[in-house]
Amino acid sequence: MSSRVLIVSGLLFVFLSFTEVNAQDTVKTAAPVAHPTDTMWMVFSSLLVIMMSLPGLALFYGGMVRSKNMISVLMQVFSLFCLITVLWVIYGYSFAFTGGSAFIGSWDKLFLSGVTPASMAATFTKGACAFAAITVGLIVGAFAERAKFSAVILFSVLWFTVSYLPVAHMVWYWDGPDAITDAASAATVSENAGFLWRMGALDFAGGTVIHINAAIAGLVGAYMIGKRVGYGVDQMAPHSLPLNMIGAALLWVGWFGFNAGSALALDSVALQAILNTLIAAATAVSHG
C-alpha cells in the first residue's frame, strides 16, 4: 500500500512540476496584451484626434478664408487626411516605428505586415495614424488661398515622406519597455532607438514631431509662395467667424484625446494631461 502511495505521489509531483514549467514558458513567450480599458481609451482618443481634423481643422481654416476659397480649403484638409491615412498603412508606420537605422525605419511593416487585430501595435497605430494625418493638415493654413490643390497634395506627400516620418522615427522610436528584461537588453534598446531618442529628446505629445515640424514647413512654404494676390488692397476678412469658432471648439475638445491619449493608458498621467490641457487652453483664452 505504501509503495502505491509513493508511486502515485511521485507521478503527481512530476506532473505538477511539468505543468508549472510549461506555464512559466507560456508567460515568458506570450505577447503582451493591453488592458481592455486602456484599449478602449486609446480607440476613443484616436477618434477625438480624427475629429480635430474632420471637421475641426477644416472648419477652423475654412471660416478664416474668403467665401470663394471655402470649398477648396475644406477639400484640401479632407483629401489630405484620407491620403495620409492610406500612405500610413502602406509605408508610414513601417518607416516611423521599425528598427531600420537611427534616422529612418525599415520595410518590415509595409502594409502593416504582422500587425494583428489583437496586438498592442494595432491599437497604437490608429492613434499614430491620426497624429500623422492632422500634422499634414496643419500646414494647409499656411498655403490657404495661395496654392493649387494639386500642388498642396504633391507637397504634402513629399513632406510626409522625407520630413515627418524621419523626425517621428528619430524622436519616438524605441523597442518599448517589453523588450527590457535585463541590463544587457536595456542597452540594446537604447542602441536600436531613434537618433534623437538616444540623445535624450522627450516629446510626450508631438511638440517636436508635430508642432515644430509642421510650423517650420508652413513658415518656409508661406515665405516661398509669397503674399496673396491683392493683399493690402482687397478686403480679405474671414467670411464666417462662427464656423471658425466651431472649429476652434472642436480642436479644443479633440486635444484632450491628443494629449491624454499620448499616455497610451488611462492612468494618472493621462488624467494629468487632461487637467493641464484644460487649464492651459482656458488660461490662453483668458489672457488673449
UniProtKB/TrEMBL annotation:
InterPro entries reported for this sequence: Ammonium/urea_transptr, Ammonium_transpt, Ammonium_transpt_CS, NH4_transpt_AmtB-like_dom
Location (main, coarse): membrane
GO MF annotations, alphabetized: ammonium channel activity
Signal peptide start and end residues: 1-23
Domain Ammonium transporter AmtB-like: residue ranges: 40-284
Residue runs in coiled coils: none
Transmembrane segments: 39-61, 73-104, 124-144, 151-174, 204-225, 237-258, 264-285
Keywords: Ammonia transport, Membrane, Signal, Transmembrane, Transmembrane helix, Transport
Localisation per UniProt entry: Membrane
Bilayer topology annotation: Multi-pass membrane protein
An example Gene Ontology CC term for this record: plasma membrane
UniProt keyword tRNA processing, yes or no: no
UniProt family annotation: Belongs to the ammonia transporter channel (TC 1.A.11.2) family.
Name recorded for this polypeptide: Ammonium transporter AmtB-like domain-containing protein
Organism: Potamilus streckersoni
